[in-house]
Design brief:
6-stranded mixed sheet, globular, binds ligand AN7
């Protein structure tokens, strides 16, 4: 076992685990909550923190939920798992599948998942079906397949995924000593916003927090079914993780929004890339584009008429920037400067030949 407890051990009393549930962990959870250096001041809130979910074992928040789904699958005697994914769920399933020797089958939209995520699924040895279609179509196929085969579905429609992911909310309250005023979070299939809301409300009802945050969810403008109020047949955004047109937890996300007096809005690709580069260059935090949607949304709150002054805000940075090296390479607009490997040449370059 890792030195720090994983989320099941850390939050056992809040999860549906029994003595019959196998002990499962890759050291997920307990991720850093890092105070903002500059973006918080720029938006004018009191405190801004980033929760670095990219520090999880496979580089995204999915591990919090996957560990629970896997523990319960093992408890039920399953030997196979399956998911559809825009990339991170497949990487996480493949890792836990490898560790616990479950046959792992992942369906991904062909050509539309970030390189790092595909590399992970390959390295962990999952069987990868690249479907000629969207994530939504892949998920719908998977939901049909689990009716026909003895195989565990580990997408977030599996309630144990949501249970595991709610531990992110517990960690925030445990670390801040109270709930933040706002939680900004990207929304794709809408499992995570559902899970965080569940975590905050459970902590409040158990007396661990006095209040709950307003849930501020952000979709990508080209993939914003909840904002538009109807499914998007051909979702399009640079943030491939949230290129989802018909979220499985749509209603739960709306409930989280309404019960918390929050909002679900959208940010376009330029706003996402701006936030992505500001996080890297002003905060030293490299997250993936989908994660930056939370910060792009935060930056937009004043223009959406939300007063952030005096507020404590947490942005969930759901995945690691290394997942998607292609976007950094294309959008950071840094030219390599080629040079001969000697002092004179390097000095010449640095001093402009003077
Ligand atoms: C980095 O991996 O749906 O709203 O199949 O990878 O809970 O779906 C990923 C989603 C945000 C959206 N940030 O979370 C998948 C998948 C990152 C993500 C989301 C995803 P949900």
């Amino acid at each position: 076992m890792p030195m720090l407890p994983g989320v099941i051990e850390r939050y056992r009393e809040f999860l549906e685990v029994t003595d019959a549930t196998p002990s499962v962990s890759l050291g997920e959870g307990s991720t850093p909550l890092v105070r903002s250096r500059s973006i918080g001041d720029a938006v004018g809130c009191k405190n801004l923190y980033f929760k670095l979910e990219g520090c999880n074992p496979t580089g995204s928040f999915k591990d919090r939920g996957m560990v629970m789904a896997i523990a319960k699958a093992l408890e039920a005697g399953r030997t196979r798992i399956i998911c559809a994914s825009t990339g991170n769920t497949s990487a996480s399933a493949a890792a836990y599948g490898a560790r616990y020797q479950l046959e792992t089958l992942v369906l991904v939209p062909a050509g539309e998942i970030a390189l790092g995520k595909l590399a992970q699924a390959m390295a962990y040895g999952a069987r990868i079906l690249a479907v000629n279609g969207s994530f939504d179509q892949a998920l719908s196929a998977v939901r049909g397949i689990v009716e026909l085969m003895d195989i565990e579905l580990v997408n977030s429609v599996n309630p144990y995924r949501i249970q595991g992911q709610k531990t992110g909310a517990f960690e925030i309250v445990d670390e801040l000593g109270e709930a933040p005023d706002f939680l900004c979070i990207p929304v794709g299939n809408a499992g995570n916003i559902t899970a965080y809301w569940k975590g905050f409300t459970e902590y409040q009802s158990k007396g661990r927090a006095e209040s709950t945050p307003r849930m501020m969810g952000f979709q990508a403008a080209g993939a914003a079914p909840i904002v538009l109020g109807e499914p998007v047949a051909r979702p399009e955004t640079i943030a491939t993780a949230i290129r989802i047109g018909n979220p499985a937890s749509w209603e739960q996300a709306e409930a989280a929004r309404d019960e918390s007096k929050g909002m679900i809005d959208m940010v376009d690709d330029n706003e996402i890339v701006d936030a992505y580069l500001r996080l890297a260059r002003e905060e030293g935090i490299f997250c993936e584009p989908a994660s930056a949607a939370s910060v792009a949304g935060l930056l937009k709150l004043p223009e959406l008429g939300v007063d952030v002054s005096g507020k404590t805000i947490v942005c969930i940075l759901t995945g690691n920037g290394l997942k998607d090296p292609g976007t950094a390479e294309k959008r950071a607009l840094v030219e390599l400067e080629y040079v001969e490997p000697d002092i004179d040449s390097v000095m010449n370059l640095l001093t402009g030949g003077k």
